[in-house]
Amino acid sequence: MGQGHLGGEQVTTERPLAIVTGGARGIGAACAVRLAADGYDIAFCHRNPGTAAEAVETECAERGAAVFRAVCDIADAAAVDDFVRAAQQRFGDPAVLVAAAGITRDGLLIRATEDDWDRVLRTNLSGVRHICKAVVPGMMRRRAGSIVTLSSVAGLTAALGQSNYAATKAGIIGFGKALSAEVARFGVRVNAVAPGFIETEMTEALGPEALREARKTIPMRRFGAPREVAALVSFLASEEASYITGHTFCVDGGLAA
């Protein structure tokens, strides 16, 4: 597991810790930067090394956050445990978790391979389970915490060629509802955010024609920006949302409506 500039040093800070998976790109990166601006130290993991993660680290640090980052495949439960343990050793137990990491392997069911199904489920759904299981004990010790999982409107509405992806995103919603009931008495909240079409590398991969057609289906006739999702995540992480748990919130320009 790789790590950021903090190495193995213990960090003394008055800022609470936010952990973000998939924090190097897209919505995860926007959430990490927004939470840094909100006053959190940031620990984020990402699947691939590179300049994108370095840029996010720099942006978070510019907003006053101490930052720890690690290369971690969230489909690997042991790697996730190592990442969370390393973050806790530096900052203590987390106050916020944003489970944003996810992948797509789109294709019609009759053409999809077993690997297409397995990889998406292991990353998108099992990955959320792994990170939540690693983080929840620390939040229970603090008797406070906010978990925000990233679902999708694909988990709520028909998603042509995305049976694997839709299954994971619907599963995240059900998982979060059950978990919210388990941990509410410990002061831990669990909510899901379900973005629609957001301007990220994932949507760009659809191609120009598919993107044009997609815009026609959105009542607001535009795609969202990662910062618009991060704004909702910021609210759900805050004390202003202290009586909200077990719910799913769409950021989709009216698509699911």
Question: Can you characterise this structure?
Answer:
- With 257 residues, this protein is α/β, with parallel strands linked by helices.
- It has a single domain (17-251), classed as NAD(P)-binding Rossmann-like Domain (Rossmann fold), CATH 3.40.50.720.
- Helix content is 44%, strand content 15%.
- It contains eight helices and seven strands.
- It has helices at 26-37, 51-62, 77-91, 114-142, 163-183, 201-204, 208-216, 226-237; strands at 17-21, 41-46, 67-71, 96-99, 145-150, 188-195, 248-251.
- A seven-stranded parallel beta sheet has the order 3-2-1-4-5-6-7, sandwiched between helices.
- Strand 4 (96-99), helix 4 (114-142) and strand 5 form a beta-alpha-beta unit.
- Helix 1 packs across helix 8 (226-237).
- The longest helix is centred in the middle third of the chain and has 29 residues, at 114-142.
- It is globular, with a radius of gyration of 17 Å.
- Mean pLDDT is 93; it is low at 1-7.
For the secondary structure, the number of strands is: 7
Uncertain stretches of 5 or more adjacent residues? 1-7
CATH topology: Rossmann fold
Radius of gyration: 17 Å
What's the overall average pLDDT, rounded? Answer: 93
- What order do the strands of the largest sheet run in, or round the barrel if closed? 3-2-1-4-5-6-7
Could you state the CATH homologous superfamily?
NAD(P)-binding Rossmann-like Domain
Major sheet: size, sense and barrel closure?
7 strands, parallel
- State which percent range the strand residues make up: 5-15%
CATH architecture: 3-Layer(aba) Sandwich
Q: Give the number of helices.
A: 8
Distance between the termini: 42 Å
Order of helices and strands: EHEHEHEHEHEHHHE
* CATH first level: Alpha Beta
Describe the global form. Answer: globular
Total domain modules = 1
Helix content: 40-55%
Q: Structural class, from secondary structure content?
A: alpha/beta
